[in-house]
């Protein structure tokens, strides 16, 4: 089992079967518990299809008047957004299986 999965389980218990552990900031070396969230596999694939993976995470920024980059940040969804997606996703799955 991966280190971060072990860590997640230690703090939150086993996620539902088949779920993945996602690194919220896109940095797979950042195994801080605040950076880990359990997500259904289809949502996980969607996140990385949309926002990239590994060193290829999509970033956004603004160009200031002097031509410098400002407010550079990742486009990855935040924990709050992910929690919303997970709840929503689970509700949809439940609906589908009815
Ligand atoms: Zn991920």
What does this structure look like?
This protein has 98 residues and is of the alpha+beta class. The chain has one domain. The protein contains three helices and four strands. It has helices at residues 3-12, 41-51, 79-97; strands at 20-23, 36-39, 59-63, 69-74. The protein has a two-stranded antiparallel sheet. The longest helix has 19 residues, at 79-97. It is globular. It binds zinc ion. Zinc ion (ZN) binds at residues 22-23, 44, 47-48. Zinc ion binds at residues 22-23, 44, 47-48.
Keywords:
binds zinc ion; two-stranded antiparallel sheet; 98 residues; 3 helices; two-stranded antiparallel ribbon
A few lines on this structure:
The protein has one domain (3-97). Helix content is 41%, strand content 19%.
Main β-sheet, spatial strand arrangement: 1-2
How far from one another are the termini? Answer: 33 Å
Question: N-to-C SSE series?
Answer: HEEHEEH
Query: Approximately how much helix is present in the residues?
Result: 40-55%
Strand content: 15-25%
Write the layout of secondary structure elements.
Elements: H1 3-12, E1 20-23, E2 36-39, H2 41-51, E3 59-63, E4 69-74, H3 79-97
Antiparallel strand pairs: 1-2, 3-4
Zinc ion is lined by residues 22-23, 44, 47-48.
């Amino acid at each position: 089992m991966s280190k971060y999965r072990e860590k997640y389980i230690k703090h939150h218990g086993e996620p539902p079967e088949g779920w993945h552990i996602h690194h919220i900031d896109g940095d797979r070396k950042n195994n801080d518990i605040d950076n880990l969230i359990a997500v259904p596999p289809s949502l996980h694939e969607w996140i990385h299809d949309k926002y990239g993976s590994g060193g290829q995470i999509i970033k956004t920024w603004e160009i200031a008047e002097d031509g410098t980059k400002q407010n550079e940040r990742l486009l990855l969804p935040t924990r709050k957004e992910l929690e919303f997606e997970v709840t929503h996703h689970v509700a949809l799955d439940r609906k589908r299986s009815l």
